[in-house]
Amino acid sequence: MRLVRQNYRNGAIGGALAGARGTARPAPTRPWTKNHRSRTTITLLTVTALAAGCAEATSTTVKPAAGQQLLKAPPARAMDAYATKLRQESSARATAAKRWGLTKPPLPAPPAPKKKPAISTRNGFEVDDHEGLPPVFTTIPTKDKVVFLTIDDGAEKDPVFLRMMSELKIPYTAFLSDYLVKEDYGYFKKMQDRGVVLNNHTLNHRYMPNLSYERQKQEICGMQDVIEKRYGKRPALFRPPFGSYNEDTLRAAGTCGIKAAPLWNEEVFVDRWDYRELDRDLHPGDIVLSHFRGKEHWKGTMPDMVRRFLKLVTDKGYAVARIEDYL
């Protein structure tokens, strides 16, 4: 305000207006009177009003005063969007759980570890010369309170099971045998399209230690070829039928491109759980086995098995994670 008043007293405003009309005149020299003060006040009010109008018209270019900057919107919006996503996912889990007859929604799995745990053969599961062969294990070393569901062979092809697992977003890994899968390759393609990894359980589900090295290699490599032809990718994981193997089994598996041979620490059925450990309990990183079975083999369906599996896992505070995320 003082600057505007000083300019007026020095005739700057009048000179500027005169210059705009093309006539340069010296600044007037008048005594400072009450009338001058009135005109000054009117001028100041007019200039202030004009300035305020301009500020309103161009408010998008005017920055807040120091210490009053607005919060940066993009990060705030990103956090709001993330929180909204979590709420929506939690609500969807609860709705799906109720729809599929679960008393509690499954717990969400933690993020995949950035550094994969080191996998080695479990003590007592080694063959005589295990160096350089695929590791055999029943549990993945992790502090995450997770278990891994694996399902073997491919006898039952229940579309309700596919829908249930997809709606509940429960990850699992399939170990397939061709003599059962070939009845309907398309069923397992739908499974793969839902994010399930299809792995090797041999062509014909033979008891491997009874076979020669060449026969074992044929069983394992032959299934590698089938899965690659039908589903586009050779598996990295192999599970020997019945969990039985010898050195030839693992040498043949390695030759066929297998990187690891996971077994299991628990097995879940429609009506019970079986445990490998004496404490008969779950442990972080445990691998759980089940089978593609229906009422012809069980006292229930695959969805019944899933309900039993999820009830125990959730009650004990475990989430179900993808085994491939840890290998």
From TrEMBL:
- Sorted alphabetically, which PROSITE patterns does this protein's record hold? NODB
Q: Which organism is it from?
A: Streptomyces phaeochromogenes
State the protein's name. Polysaccharide deacetylase family protein
Q: Domain of life, per the record?
A: Bacteria
Chain segments carrying region Disordered: 93-119
Which CDD domains has this protein been placed in? Answer: CE4_NodB_like_6s_7s (cd10917)
SUPFAM superfamilies given in the database record: Glycoside hydrolase/deacetylase (SSF88713)
Instruction: Give any Pfam family that matches.
Output: Polysacc_deac_1
User: What PANTHER family does this protein map onto?
Assistant: GLYCOSYL TRANSFERASE-RELATED, SECRETED PROTEIN
